[in-house]
Amino acid sequence: METLTDSLTDALSERVDKLVQARKVPLGWGSPLLSVTPTCIAIRQLAVQLEALENAVRAVALEVQKLSAHQGEVLEEAARGAPSRPHPLK
């Protein structure tokens, strides 16, 4: 049985994959990993990859922040004896 953590991890992984997806391009002319690629093109491709990674890191940070805030609220409510609320990312 899949747990809430597993489903959140899968959903977040899918979002990050979409954001970073850019670099599933096969090695060929224009790839920044090949020495035959002109420097200006390689730099442009690397900049695109970097931007995708920055966006993915921001998405992960936001999800972690939401989860952390929710966990803190749940713990506070549990300490007061209040019923728990549904998870915000469900």
Overview of the structural elements:
With 90 residues, this protein is mainly α. It has one domain (4-19, 29-80). The chain is 66% helix and 0% strand. The chain has two helices and no strands. The chain has helices at 4-20, 39-80. The mean pLDDT is 77.
Topology:
Elements: H1 4-20, H2 39-80
Fill in the keyword field for this structure.
single chain, about 90 residues, mainly alpha, 2 helices, about 65% helix
Strand content: under 5%
Helicity range: 55-70%
Structural class: mainly alpha
Strand elements, count:
0
In angstroms, what is the radius of gyration? 20 Å
Largest sheet: none
Q: Measure the end-to-end span.
A: 16 Å
What is the helix tally? 2
How many domains make up the coordinates? 1
**Shape type:** elongated
Multimeric state: single chain
Low-pLDDT ranges: none
Round the mean pLDDT to the nearest integer and report it: 77
- SSE series: HH
